[in-house]
Task: structure prediction
Amino acid sequence: MPIVSAKNILLKATHEKYAVGAFNITNIIQMEAVVEAAEKNKAPLIIQVSVTPTKFIGPKVLSSVYRTIAESSSIPICLHLDHCDSVDYCKEVADAGYTNIMIDASKQNISENIRQTKEVCDYCHNIGDITVEGELGTVSGVEDQVKVAEDEAALCDPESALKFVNETGVDIFAPAIGTAHGVYKTKNPKLDFDRLKKIYELINGGEPKTPLVIHGGTGLQPDVVKRLVSLGGSKFNVSTDLKHTLIDATHDYISSHRDEYNPGKVDSAIRSAIIDKINYWIDLLGSANKA
Ligand SMILES: [Zn+2]
Result:
């Protein structure tokens, strides 16, 4: 398929009330596994990479591998930079060929957040069809270099959300509604569903135009995930679950084959575990056969 940015894929999802999985990867094996699972399910896909693995592998290398895979794929696939708090690095990664950029200036006050987000939007929209995600309110927990303590987390004010979207020109919007990065300390974290509903109605009432993003998917109960999707969350971020899957699969394989020195078999075990996990999420998000 031709290279596409996320906005149109997510508008379709918003209309049809399913969510596109935005799956974080830290290496090429994970990228291939995520793509293989999405292709088998005929599901649209957003591959996400945080700042640290992007810097470690290199944005141009990741972009080249992604483009080679995506152009010959039967499904639409996007490459997204997750939670970047540097305007300059957002621009550098956009130049390298990512199709989506998340500028995360959510720790700044709202006027500075708007200023930085608008600067990234103007830059990305000027150089091509690049979708920009912005965040208002703060999601607690740790995601790569972004750390927010529970008592620092702030939920997104709906009226401010409308102002933020209108003044920045952001393509997709992540409102903080109580989800968290990492592992939830309780089985039933306190999420503000009414707030999400209100933000959706204010921003997308009538005709959907700015898809909403749910961060912190790992550990949410299936009925909670479905409710968030039904209320308008059309990009669903899953990161910690895939990191745990990678580490656990590696550990389990090596522990039970301690005398074997065959890296390809370790890679196969990782790939297979990641594919199982992506199958679970695609089924839950309702994105199978939507490519
Ligand atoms: Zn996030």
User: Anything to note?
Assistant: The radius of gyration is 18 Å. DSSP finds eleven helices and ten strands in the chain. The pocket of zinc ion is lined by residues 83, 139, 143, 181, 215, 237 (CB under 6 Å).
